Structure formats: C-alpha cells, structure tokens
Amino acid sequence: MNRPLVVIYTAIVLDAVGIGLIFPILPTLLAEVTHAGNVATYIGIMTALYAAVQFIFAPVLGSLSDRLGRRPVLLISLAGAAVNYLFLAFAPNLWLLLLGRAIAGLTSANTSVAAAYITDISPEDKRARRFGLLNAMFGIGFIIGPVLGGLLGDYWVRLPFIAAAVLNGGNLLLAFLMLPESRTPTREKIDFAALNPLRPLRWVFSLKSLLPIVLIFFIFSGTGEVYGTCWALWGNDAFGWNGLWIGLSLGAYGVCQTLAQAFLPGPAVKLLGERGAILTGIAGASIALIVLAFAHEGWVVFAIMPIMVLGGIGVPALQSLATRQVDESQQGQFQGVLQSAVSLSSIIAPLAFASLYFVFREEWPGAIWLSVVVVYAITIPLVLGLRFDKPAMAPAT
C-alpha cells in the first residue's frame, strides 16, 4: 500500500474512533450533566446536531479541496479535531457538550475530502477495493473507539476524549510529514456563493440518474444511525450490559465489519455484480436484525454479527458506481454531496429512532431493529432500478 493511502486510512480510523468512543459513555455522560432519568432524547439531539453540522460543511470542504487542494483541507480538519476533543474533555454542562459535538461534526466532514483523495490516486478498476478498505478502516475505528470509550469511561467518563485528542494530534503530525497533494489546485478565485451546502444538491437534482444513488446513500446512512442512537440503551435494557460490555459488543462488531469490508467487496462484485452485492448486503443485515429483535441472551448478539456485517458489502460497490457518474474535475464536489446526503439522513434518523425506541422501550426494546428492516425494504426497488451506464455530464451550478 502506498504512503498517501496509509495516511488517509489512518485519518478515517481516527474519525471512527472519535465517533465510536462516545457511544458507551454517552448515556452516563448525559445523565451526569442533565440529571435526567431518560436520556434517549438527548442522545438523539446530540447525534443529530453532529450530523447537521457535517451536512453543512461536507460539500464546503469538498468544494474547497477541489480549488485549494486536498492536503491543506485535511490538515486543518485534523488540527480542529485534536483541539475539539480536549474541549469536550472539560466541558462542564450540556450546552458546551453540544457545542463540542457541533465542532466535531465540522471536522469529521473531511470524510468527503478523503474519498476524493482516494478517487484522485486510484484507477477505476481499483476503486471498489480501495473504498472497501476505506470502510474497513472505519470498522477498525469501531473496534478501537467503543472498547476504548467503555474501558476508559469506567475510570473517568471524560478520559476517552483526552485519548482521542492525543491520537488525532499524532495523525496530524503524520499527515503533515507524509501526505502529498493528490491534485493540482485550480487556483481559481473562490466563489463563496458556491459554498452554499444546498447548491451542490441542486446540481445533483439536475442529473436525474444520480438521484437513486444519492437516495440509497441517504437510506443506508439512516439505518446505520440506529446503532449509535439505541445500541447502548438497548444493551442495558435487554441484557443489563455495563459500559465495558457495550464497548466490547461494538468492538466485536467492528472486527467483523473490518474483515468483511477488507475482503468481501471485491469478490462480491466479481461474483454477484454491483447490484447483486448491494441486494445481498440488504438481505444479510435484515436477517441479523430480525434475530436481534427477538434475542433474550447477550451471546446471540455476538453470534449473529458475521451475518449482520454483510450489510456493508454493497456500499463499496455503490461508491465505485457513483464515482463513474461525474467528471474527474467534480469528484470533490460530488463526494461532498454524497456526504451531505449521509449527514442529512443522520440528522433525521437519530431523532426518529430515539423517539421510536422511547415508544417501544418498556414493552419490547428489540422492536427497534424491526423498524430498520422496514427501512431497508424501501431501498430494494431503488437498487433494482439503478442504471449502470455512465450518463452525460452536466455542468456544476
């Protein structure tokens, strides 16, 4: 693997660590600062706020990276992440925690820049595999983050943030020393009106063949938000898990996710085709979620995880397909749009799933997983209707 990819993948790992470490400690942390008995609503609000800021800034960073280059945008976002985790470690009340999560959403918008960087340096025949590795790196972060959060949080609920600040500082140094620029900046004068986060979405609506892809990304992202919003609450309600067991369960999920994303997307696309890989992923995730809904013993969660992570094998195929739909000069903008769709879904889904969990919590906490299966079912006609040819390009507006 070449050196730039190592740096990019490390940045993605640490983004996932930062997201994942807060899951096991969030109920305890929010109970500490709000003194509320039911913190499900606060969890939904914090998760949605993070996504809302990411939604605003993902296309901004993507467009800026097209004009200024990928390297400076990545360096600034990594520096901001390191400082922000220190801020979160000492935030004394709910409002400052919300501010910290908003800043975290801004710095995590660098995912669109990382995806554009990979597109810059990857020939088309290697993109599916490299996007699979990108998702695998996210899985590694979910091995480290929740376990680290659960373990350190049992000593002090703020300690995971300090660890994340140190890790991001190290990655900033690594990127500064080792990450070259992947494309020649345009040197064009920045049109600040073009940085409106809704403007790239208008551009996508002008290319109707892109809409199903964007909508599938939107839905897939929404289903992914249920884990961050409800997993810790469900683990405690259904099995009496503490922070460490919640972290270990999410870490185990990260191990399976990493292995699946590292080794399955390429062979799955070759064997099943892009459409078949996506549908297989939906089927695997749905079967696992039905099992989780009816699980009464904690060991069932660990046993079903190898099937549950099949849900991710179609995402790299979808990402590879997406990169073929736009011109190379617009990859940063388009990746930013995809990230915005993901973030927009991540604003809506946590609030919706938190509300649903509150409704079912007393009678049947596992019912939340069946709601995810219903959402997955919506994507099937969209996947069956996907076009796999390269459409004509339309100019950015």
Structure write-up:
The structure is a single chain. The two termini are 37 Å apart. It contains 16 helices and no strands. The protein is mainly α and 397 residues long.
Provide the low-confidence segments as ranges.
391-397
Strand content bin:
under 5%
What does the oligomeric state look like here?
A: single chain
Q: Mind telling me the C-alpha Rg? A: 20 Å
Structural class: mainly alpha
Task: Give the topology string: H per helix, E per strand.
Answer: HHHHHHHHHHHHHHHH
User: What is the overall number of helices?
Assistant: 16
Largest sheet: none
- How helix-rich are the residues, as a percent range? over 70%
Distance between the termini: 37 Å
Mean pLDDT: 80
Using the alpha-carbon principal axes, give the shape.
globular
Q: What's the number of extended β-strand segments?
A: 0
